[in-house]
Amino acid sequence: MIPEKIKFGCLTKKGMAEVHERSLPQLKADELLVKQEVCNICTTDYQQWQGLREHQGYPMAGGHECSGIVVDKGSDIGNTFEVGDRVSILYDYCGICSQCKMGEITNCENIKMFGKNYSNEYYGLFGFATYFIRKAKSFVKMNPKLRPEEAAFVEPLGSVLQNMKKLRLRPGKDTVVVIGAGTMGLLNAAVARAMGGRVIVSEMMDKKIDISRRMGFEVINAKEEDPVEKVMEFTNDLGADVVILAVGATAANNQALKMIKKRDAKISLFAAGYPAPQMDIDPNMIHYKKIEVIGTFGSSLEDYNDAAGMLNEKRIDVSLLIEERISLDKIQEAFEKANSNNYRISVMLQQKTV
Amino acid sequence: MIPEKIKFGCLTKKGMAEVHERSLPQLKADELLVKQEVCNICTTDYQQWQGLREHQGYPMAGGHECSGIVVDKGSDIGNTFEVGDRVSILYDYCGICSQCKMGEITNCENIKMFGKNYSNEYYGLFGFATYFIRKAKSFVKMNPKLRPEEAAFVEPLGSVLQNMKKLRLRPGKDTVVVIGAGTMGLLNAAVARAMGGRVIVSEMMDKKIDISRRMGFEVINAKEEDPVEKVMEFTNDLGADVVILAVGATAANNQALKMIKKRDAKISLFAAGYPAPQMDIDPNMIHYKKIEVIGTFGSSLEDYNDAAGMLNEKRIDVSLLIEERISLDKIQEAFEKANSNNYRISVMLQQKTV
Amino acid sequence: MIPEKIKFGCLTKKGMAEVHERSLPQLKADELLVKQEVCNICTTDYQQWQGLREHQGYPMAGGHECSGIVVDKGSDIGNTFEVGDRVSILYDYCGICSQCKMGEITNCENIKMFGKNYSNEYYGLFGFATYFIRKAKSFVKMNPKLRPEEAAFVEPLGSVLQNMKKLRLRPGKDTVVVIGAGTMGLLNAAVARAMGGRVIVSEMMDKKIDISRRMGFEVINAKEEDPVEKVMEFTNDLGADVVILAVGATAANNQALKMIKKRDAKISLFAAGYPAPQMDIDPNMIHYKKIEVIGTFGSSLEDYNDAAGMLNEKRIDVSLLIEERISLDKIQEAFEKANSNNYRISVMLQQKTV
Amino acid sequence: MIPEKIKFGCLTKKGMAEVHERSLPQLKADELLVKQEVCNICTTDYQQWQGLREHQGYPMAGGHECSGIVVDKGSDIGNTFEVGDRVSILYDYCGICSQCKMGEITNCENIKMFGKNYSNEYYGLFGFATYFIRKAKSFVKMNPKLRPEEAAFVEPLGSVLQNMKKLRLRPGKDTVVVIGAGTMGLLNAAVARAMGGRVIVSEMMDKKIDISRRMGFEVINAKEEDPVEKVMEFTNDLGADVVILAVGATAANNQALKMIKKRDAKISLFAAGYPAPQMDIDPNMIHYKKIEVIGTFGSSLEDYNDAAGMLNEKRIDVSLLIEERISLDKIQEAFEKANSNNYRISVMLQQKTV
Q1: What are the residues whose beta carbons fall under 8 Å from the beta carbon of C162, sequence distance 6 or more?
Q2: Do residues C53 and C131 both lie within one domain?
Q3: Nearest chain A Cα distance for residue B260, angstroms
Q4: D238: domain range?
Q5: DSSP conformational letter for B42
Q6: What residues of chain B lie within 8 A of the CB of D142, using their CB?
């Protein structure tokens, strides 16, 4: 039974997450109706809650790392999705503009990533809604054997695959240092390993060091050890082939420049920082050491598709990256926890005990 | 003024092209209404007319190398297309399935390439129609300074770009031999040159040899010279890095195996042949000489987008690949000419003198 | 103590391996003197013993999968190698010709792979010699913690890395079927997995099926199951992205064509076959299915270097690919065993018990 | 007749170039004796003369962009080089270390680029010598139909090819802006065009603007026009795909950041600057705009080999990049001219009138 009114979480101002209600619109020919299971809270979500990225507007019906079950489909969908399928969603995109034709939907020229795409009142994708209707082209099919909160990792994993594509990781050859063992850091680490990289994780916080070790990585305790020295030790003084900055911090940026190999290293600026970090770039050093400083953000359609494939085929295991499950009616508590150096907080949208 | 009835060319049986009429459907929110200017006759079109590819079904409202002007747009298109824009069309695709998400729309799992996608009665894309309505996502914008029949080269050029992607041409380094100087052969030659290849064209027919020379290529007259010997002569006995087979013929296939360099050459099977050709593949030779035999067919969304870009920026010149312009009411004559070893016959859909 | 006379294994005719003696030449400025530890018997070696590849000439002082310890170095070596280092050798190459400059030393224009490069009397690289002198540029440094017979895997591993480079394996994405679980098949399988591929091995022989399972691969018992059906079952009817033919046999070649995915699959002809196999290539099918048939043979300098790195960093484990250790004085017995569907037979050159 | 004493140009202190004499050493088995024709003066050479890069040491028998004719060969060379061949030289490298095995000879671990490799007294490669002896592996063969001063472009062209490899230029697609139309800028421009890029050159100096136009490039007069605005105008407000900084200057670096396209642009730091330039890198901007800042320096063996191929096959024309020919006895004058915003000054080593 699809309720007349759906519930959804939204941010109404800095530090305030609430549950609101609205009606579901009519299902169109090219759309799917999905009963949402979970939506994980992303950095983008809780940094707005913290007041660090308030440019995105209020009220923000955010949330974009979610998964659910198809309960109805429009008449023009073809055989790709059937009622009962588990799905995960992508960012919105028009599919018409030149950027979308290249698959670069994060750059879509017609549809804003967190615009008022589903309401005149609310910004955001309504990820924390109990049900939603979206164009079928914005879903990927997920393996029903995954837990819903694992299936919800398609969007963040897509951005990690974009990073790997930009980095052109050399499988079986590269040694990758990931600085920062938060959710995105360890997701990068897990993917780099699954793609044939040797991975070293550098982190300061005890809990994150512990999870990094449980996931099987070589770990530097950056509170007690000098990360640059340790990387040199781990690599026979050769230095890292690749450094992925999964934190946006000046100190980390400059560490990266010192722990790389003599020539031809790559540094990925995977994370933005608020407040904005610095980086001591000396153009002559970049030139002589042939360094590549590579920015990465968002995902292409292919990245999302590949992310679904990696999760569905269990090529990586994200189970340790889920900190806690909290039901939608406690969404304010969920945001508080997301704000406390935790891994993903998973908001359960159907109130069942998991 | 958009007429109540549109006219369109179609194949009703082997050897028979006719002009039929039908009404235009209603314009939907995600669609464009286009006043078509021209549609060039492709090999797929005239080989059905010849009876060589009749598996595609009758009546066939074919034609897929066309261009026109946007005369109306639906409400959900965004700013990508405006009334008055020149556009060219792509193959149909759902945009929903996994293959479309990878951009591989030629492999679309929901929509058949020449299916009955626009009518219960006719197969085909209605390329030879005076007007048509299509989803906006199936168009690319074209430079108004191009002639319409040049703008219509997006689809064949897209398939050539797919070929180049598969071949991973090494710009500034590779010597490419193209066997067969028909439209698709010279299009491959033009693109290989624009991408930094040295290009040698091998052809038997005087007219095509002449056009190849006028386009500035090094040419082998395969009727009078031995193509294998000539390639060795042109390359200081090194042989070709790449051979593109733009004809589907056993003799050409086996020539290719003999004119390549000693190691690491690539051979592209760009063209199907009717009747089906053979190729003397010795697996041990493929192994020891490290040959790559590469099949290629169709285009990705990115290929189409890039094809539009190349034409729009005039990075290649296709003007010599247009043999003649014939108005729609003489479509049977147009097919007769297309069937006579000519370059593209361009069917003019608005009856104006060009 | 370096003996005045060194001993070495050689093939004097079909089916006959003997131990001969000769003097060591003088060490030159650009050379290393190496006390050999082991040399594994390669397919090339025992197929000559079997009389299948006799074109290589007798007497053949073959063997080229070996490792040892540097005992003296010339004056122009620099700091790359020191006395006491464990090393493994590469094929001979001039380093001067254009192919060598590209790193493609297997294609060297001046030095024949198994020519009379070290003697007027014997062909071959003297891999089964107790000591030898070679140019320093033909060695790579190995991790002393490896067993000598593992360090001897540089050459075969190099050829597998060449294969992977030609295949452009997509890490985290591709499903790879390896047909044939001999030494080279499982080496390909191990590398494909280490580079982020999902690997399925197809094999008929019980012992090899068992070793494949012990190495952790998904395995098809091709004696009891239909390999094509099983691959479809393993891949949800999608088929393999990549098939590596690690046997040179007609039946396997044709299986490969049937177990691949609908579009864009790659088939690697990794192994030559004696007698020469066939393959049912239909050029139209290659074209429409966009198949790549890729030959691969030998290794580049970079491949060898990377192979040493992979072994040294223990990114793959080859221990199960070593069947037995046999001392040099029993080299005829070693060849008999190599000839009986076994994994690598390792010839111990210093007669110690391992 | 090979003279007992050879003459060579060298820098004895800041601002002082002199001609000295020495004997030729004995030819060894792996060496070539070359009668040098010309050596062009590189930036590295004249910036030492200017006192900007004096860390390289005096007396500096520099010069490394040279070509000549083989007059004798050692016994171990094979058939790659014959007496009478025109050749050009590469940087020194050991060929033994891991970097050389990867082809990255600029990173050679045993031999310093401008060390005292040929003399206990002089630094440098003796490029300005009338004759020299070098290992055969350090030469590439050149087309005798080239002028000697064109054949001498192998080394600088190699560094441009390294740059292109790092940039992964997309042929037929990318628009490349080159800032700075000196020798290296226009060499980059010529190669980018030969590899299928659209090229726009930005320059302030009248003479260089004129040469850029004569070479057929789209040109921005940066003294009179705003380069950022002009690039936007040239590209329909899309911005450049790639910017190559062929000058090491803060203003140019920051222009580059403003003239690139919105997402996924690449900026190459091709040139070092003396004094050291700055660049206003904002890590958040690099992240969100997915910019790649790429350092490049030196060449691999493959780059040199490819550079020889490009010149030999006349895929680019460097004739306008040669400013003047001056004989060795006037080497101080040659350096004065090289120091005056000129293109390459070619030092003629055999005193003939060209």
Answers
A1: C296, C297, C298, C299, C300, C303
A2: yes
A3: 30
A4: 159-295
A5: P
A6: none
CA pair distance B329, B352, nearest whole angstrom: 12
**Which residues of chain B make contact with D191, given a CB cutoff of 8 A?**
172
Angle D154-167/D183-194 helices, nearest 10 degrees?
A: 60
Tally Cβ neighbours within 10 Å of residue A26: 8
* Chain D residue at shortest CA distance from C111: D78
Look at residues D146, D141, D135 and name the one whose alpha carbon lies nearest to residue D83: D141
The total number of structural domains in chain B stands at 2
Say if residue B289 is in the same domain as residue B330.
no
Contact B47, B274 (CB under 8 A): yes
Instruction: Please report, for the domain that includes residue C268, its CATH number.
Output: 3.40.50.720
Q: What is the sign of the dihedral through the CA atoms of A336, A340, A341 and A343?
A: negative
Name residues of chain C where pLDDT drops below 70.
54, 351-354
B335-350 pLDDT tens trace: 999 999 999 999 999 9
Instruction: Give the count of Cβ contacts less than 8 A between chain A and B.
Output: 73
Region A34-48: what's the mean pLDDT? Answer: 94
Distance in angstroms (rounded) separating the CA atoms of residues C197 and C241: 10
- Going D245 to D247 to D253 to D254, the CA torsion angle's sign is negative
Would the CA dihedral through B208, B210, B216, B222 be positive or negative? positive
The answer to whether the beta carbons of residues D106 and D297 sit under 8 Å apart is yes
Contact between chains at B293 and C296 (C-beta distance less than 8 A) = no
Q: Which residues of D touch A (CB under 8 A)?
A: 99, 104, 107, 166, 248, 253, 262-264, 269-273, 276-279, 281-298
Q: What is the total residue count of chain A?
A: 354
Residues contacting residue A250 through CB under 8 Å, at least 6 positions apart: A273, A277, A278, A279
**A130 beta partners:** none
Query: Vertex D82, ends D79 and D86: CA angle to 5°?
Result: 125
Q: Compute the CA torsion angle B119, B125, B129, B134 (nearest 10 deg).
A: 80
- Read off the pLDDT of residues D104-134 as tens digits, 9 standing for 90 and up: 999 999 998 888 989 999 999 999 999 999 9
Residue of B nearest to C270 (CA): B287
How far is residue A209 from each of residues A179, A186, A217, A230, A254, measured CA to CA in Å?
11, 10, 10, 15, 21
Chains in contact with D, where contact means 3 or more Cβ–Cβ distances below 8 Å, are: A, B, C
> Roughly what angle, to the nearest 10 degrees, separates helices B183-194 and B154-167?
60
- Is 0.85 exceeded by the ipTM? yes
* Residue-wise burial string across B215-233, b where 16 or more C-beta atoms lie within 10 A, e elsewhere: bebbbbbbeeeebbebbbe
In whole angstroms, what is the distance from residue C344 CA to residue D86 CA? 48
Amino acid at residue number C153 = F
Contact flag A281-D284 (C-beta cutoff 8 Å): no
Q: What are phi and psi of B12, to 5 degrees?
A: -100, -25
> Among C153, C195, C316, which would you mutate to test the A interface (most chain A Cβ atoms within 10 Å of its Cβ)?
C195
Residue where one domain finishes, among candidates D295, D310, D336 = D295
**CB count, 10 Å around CB of B35?**
16
Confidence (pLDDT) at C54: 65
Is the peptide bond preceding residue C275 cis, with omega within 30 degrees of 0? yes
CB contacts of C158 in chain D (<8 Å) are none
Determine, yes or no, domain membership for D60. yes
Task: Judge: A109–B304 Cβ closer than 8 Å, yes or no.
Answer: no
Same domain? D147 vs D178: no
Q: Examine the domain organization and report whether C55 and C168 are in the same domain.
A: no
Instruction: Verify whether the Cβ–Cβ distance B171 to D173 is below 8 Å.
Output: no
Residue reference for tokens 């091995």: C201
| A87 in the same domain as A37 | yes
**Nearest by CB: C77 against D80, D96, D140:** D96
C9-37 exposure pattern, b = at least 16 Cβ within 10 A, e = fewer: bbbeeeeebeebebebeeeeebbbbbbbb
> What's the whole-model pTM score?
0.96
